[in-house]
UniProtKB/TrEMBL annotation:
Protein name listed in UniProt: FAD-dependent oxidoreductase
Lineage, highest ranks first: Bacteria, Candidatus Buchananiibacteriota
Residues of the RsdA/BaiN/AoA(So)-like Rossmann fold-like domain: 9-412
Tagged with keyword Translocase: no
Domain of life of the organism encoding this protein: Bacteria
Keyword terms, alphabetized: FAD, Flavoprotein
Family annotation (InterPro entries): BaiN-like (IPR004792), BaiN-like_dom_sf (IPR023166), FAD/NAD-bd_sf (IPR036188), RsdA/BaiN/AoA(So)-like_dom (IPR055178), RsdA/BaiN/AoA(So)_Rossmann (IPR057661)
Cofactor: FAD
Domain RsdA/BaiN/AoA(So)-like insert: from-to ranges: 198-359
One protein family per Pfam: HI0933_like
Amino acid sequence: MGLFDQKFDVAVIGGGPAGLLAAGTAAQSGAGVVLIEKNDRLGKKLLITGKGRCNLTNAVKDGRDFIKELGKNGPFLFSSLTAFGPHDVIDFFNRRGVKTKVERGGRVFPVSDNAADVLKALIGYINEGKVKLVKNAEILDLIKENNLLKKIKLPDGEISANNFIFATGGLAYPQTGSTGDGFGFAQKLGHAVIKPEPALAPVMAKEKWVKELEGLSLKNIRINLWQNNKKMAERFGEALFTAEGLSGPIILDLSQEIGRLLKIGPVELKINFKPALDYPTLDKRIQKDLAANKNKAFKNSLDELLPQKLIPVMIKLSGIEKNKKAGQLTRAERAKLAKLLTELKLNVAGLAGFDKAIVTAGGIDLKEIDPKTMRSKIIPNLYFAGEIIDLNGPTGGFNLQICFSTGFVAGRSAAGKNIGAK
Ligand SMILES: Cc1cc2nc3c(=O)[nH]c(=O)nc-3n(C[C@H](O)[C@H](O)[C@H](O)COP(=O)(O)OP(=O)(O)OC[C@H]3O[C@@H](n4cnc5c(N)ncnc54)[C@H](O)[C@@H]3O)c2cc1C
């Protein structure tokens, strides 16, 4: 039978991690499943997760702690996290040949450090269930009858199903296919969408000298967030200079708070490159380095203290004559240098947009979804999974776990309850 002549039990729209897990699970539960993806291949975004290594879940947190990380909407995930939590995800991939390891902060990665292995396992899962795959298929319209979704219109014909799962993702990194189509489809069916906004986004700085530091990655630094001379938050860890400002784990995790504060007024970041040293210890350390290079020019005396790329910028910002002999720096000049090393100030110009954000905040209003089944409370044969819903978390594997948990529950429920069946 041709694709357009049969009626599937479940049609899943979107071949990202949520859609793949939902389609595979529905098929394992006995349903005849079709998966529709508009790209020419599946999981385009999944392949770039975790810088190509794919941080697939977070293993440190138990259910309650995990949910706390997701902010005020976190409790919505409770049922699906119980049904398919981090340990189920690890077990799922281990059983499909993807060995996993746990890194700092409970971040789980494949031992191979290759996101392609994660995608391969998910594709294996839908193949096991004989999921019918339709690629290069952009949905043109939805056909609803008697408050049930009946068909989806593709350029070449219509696909009929008893139940439908929307897993089209959000708006982050639209070049991967996540162009927010599902928001429009859901709105058309009567769902409310909480305004999508970029989350986990890099920061743009007003200072133009950041461009000179592009690509510089720093470990074990502290970044403090300031507004109106008050410290609002701080993070310790890894950050990365970009052409326009800063990115990397601690910046992405601060970005939601930065976005909130920017609505109130100007925001500053203060970087401490030497958070392990108090002022007297740092001053001693600087004195030692200057003394060891006392006959060299100041500009050539900081090699031990700072990464090469940072030195010219620090020298410029210090205002100290770069050819002055290192041994001749005054106490005040040393203090200036120490201040730069512990409180380098960046004025935040704004957050980067969807093109550089890691996830979308906002999405389908959770009030209109049953958390136990992921079923729409408006259209009884429609289910949601993944980033399309109004739930997101920090970096660390939380966002993919949301996709897997909701994908599992949506797939299982859509297969079990063929509400749209005649
Ligand atoms: C650079 C980057 C790194 C990341 N790293 C991590 C990480 O290490 N760990 C982590 O937990 N999270 C990470 N994330 C977040 C994570 O990738 C997403 O939360 C996740 O991919 C969302 O999955 P999804 O299935 O809901 O949607 P998506 O992955 O966005 O997939 C949706 C799919 O639906 C398809 N689609 C859209 N509209 C239509 C349509 N009209 N018809 C048919 N198909 C359609 C799209 O083409 C796409 O393939 C990262 C994100 C980015 C951008």
